[in-house]
Design goal:
Layout lengths: L6 E6 L3 H12 L4 E4 L7 H4 L3 E2 L10 H25 L10 E5 L2 H16 L5 E3 L1 H7 L9 E5 L3 E2 L2 H14 L3 E3 L3 E7 L2 E7 L4 E9 L20 E11 L10 E6 L2 E7 L4 E5 L13 H14 L7 E12 L6 E4 L5 E5 L9 H13 L31
Parallel strand pairs: 1-2, 1-11, 2-8, 4-13, 11-18
Antiparallel strand pairs: 3-7, 4-6, 5-6, 9-10, 10-11, 12-15, 12-16, 13-14, 14-15, 17-18
Helix pairs in contact: 1-6, 1-8, 3-6
Bound molecules: flavin-adenine dinucleotide.
The site of flavin-adenine dinucleotide has 43 residues, from α1, α2, β12 and β16.
């Protein structure tokens, strides 16, 4: 394989984070190479595409909740710009979300989180059982009530990848189907990236966006290695019969303490997810999690029994010790880390792409991103550079 000549930026990883950052950097005028043996086939492929700042707000993660809200606000313009740049629809759907509690203790748990969501000023309201079923008549009659998150929307993450690949190509980005083995460093600066297949792409800047494998790329000092780990998730793709009532909103079920969701796409498919499993890099589909997920989904929406089962997909979320992304400068000059987006990488795509492009170009980064620099994990004394623009 021919190794491209020197470029301004090499992006390691062509998931939604690497591709969107590459597109933005190219729009800024940089020459860009993306390295990935299978672009778009990591966590990005398995995801459900929920854009859920409210449903994903968790106790103790307030700064992340604020970033998630900004990201959700950025999505309509991001989707529009991506569709214009690629000529490809991404199926952004502003259809909202209903949370449904199955038993009394689930109802109490939904109410607890609702109080937290409302205290953060998030867009949520309590629903009775009847109100849940007025919004989504396919919900089980026994649902004990729930909540509406009217601003939690969705996008088809697979269409987003397709569109990003076209937008990147049109902006002059070269995608090389190879793996990065090592970031090469000369003095205090990155010099390029050595490829597993041989050769080195020389570059003035390197973006580390290899998802849950971002910690495995060689050549970096310890403080620049992001503490990401794979957190396995299973999603199922179902299809409702062409005739008959269909879900409109995303449904998030709490079923005897276990979470599931159903995300209805415009094309009639429904994404059901997702498990959270600590199994290293193992992506085998085990029967038990499939059973549990289907059982929970049909408890919340009994019509699922009649749906066709089209696909089982597993992927590894890039998890971090505090469940938040790692975006900023680290280690040698010219290195930008953009990983660790865990449960919310599709949601966080627009704000991450903007932050990476800003770091590469020396523009200020949005203050909401400041808490998420790599420096928060660096050993004492090595933490100074997170969030500082590359060009500054
Ligand atoms: C089951 C599941 C459901 C999810 N649902 C949602 C959701 O509804 N909403 C949401 O916002 N988020 C969701 N997520 C999270 C989201 O998918 C991730 O946070 C996001 O996709 C991370 O994107 P990424 O580009 O960092 O990683 P990935 O998509 O994993 O991409 C990383 C890429 O790096 C490449 N790579 C790895 N090592 C190297 C190397 N050495 N050299 C070159 N390339 C390399 C891989 O081939 C891969 O393509 C879900 C995730 C899972 C698993």
């Amino acid at each position: 394989m021919e190794v491209p000549g020197p470029v301004d930026v090499v992006v390691i990883g062509g998931g939604v984070i690497g591709l969107s950052a590459a597109w933005y950097a190219a729009r800024d005028g940089a020459s860009v190479v993306v390295l990935d043996p299978e672009p778009g086939r990591g966590a990005t492929w398995a995801a459900a595409g929920m854009l859920a700042p409210v449903g994903e707000a968790h106790f103790g993660e307030e700064p992340l909740a604020r970033l998630n809200v900004l990201a959700a606000q950025a999505w309509p313009a991001f989707a529009e710009a991506l569709e214009a740049a690629s000529g490809t629809a991404v199926a952004y759907r502003a259809t909202g979300t209903v949370a449904a509690a199955v038993d009394a203790s689930d109802r109490a748990a939904v109410d607890d989180v609702l109080r937290f969501q409302l205290a953060l000023g998030l867009d949520a309201r309590r629903l009775s059982s009847g109100q849940c079923r007025e919004l989504e008549p396919l919900l089980a009659p026994g649902i004990r009530g729930g909540a509406e998150f009217a601003g939690d929307h969705q996008v088809d993450n697979r269409l987003v990848v397709t569109a990003l690949l076209v937008a990147c190509a049109r902006a002059g980005v070269t995608v090389v189907a190879d793996e990065a083995s090592t970031v090469t460093v000369t003095g205090d600066r990155v010099a390029g990236v050595a490829l597993r297949g041989g050769g080195t792409v020389a570059a003035g800047a390197v973006v580390l966006a290899a998802g849950c494998r971002s910690g495995q790329v060689g050549g970096l000092p310890p403080e620049a290695v992001p503490p990401v780990r794979p957190v396995k998730g299973l999603t199922l793709r179902l299809r409702a019969p062409a005739s008959g009532p269909a879900l409109v909103r995303t449904v998030r079920g709490l079923v005897h303490g276990r979470s599931c969701y159903l995300v209805p796409r415009a094309d009639g498919s429904i994404v059901v997810g997702a498990t959270m499993e600590e199994r290293g890099f193992d992506l085998t589909v085990q029967a038990g999690p499939v059973h549990d997920l289907l059982d929970d989904a049909r408890t919340v929406v009994p019509a699922v029994d009649e749906y066709g089962l089209e696909e089982l997909t597993t992927g590894s979320r890039p998890g971090t010790p505090d469940n938040a992304p790692v975006v900023g400068r680290a280690g040698p000059d010219g290195l930008v880390v953009a990983t660790g987006h865990f449960r919310n990488g599709i949601l966080l795509t627009p704000v991450t792409a903007e932050a990476v492009a800003a770091l590469l170009a020396g523009r200020p980064v949005d203050a909401a991103m400041a808490p998420f620099g790599p420096g928060r994990f660096a050993p004492e004394g090595a933490a100074g550079r997170a969030g500082t623009p590359v060009g500054a």
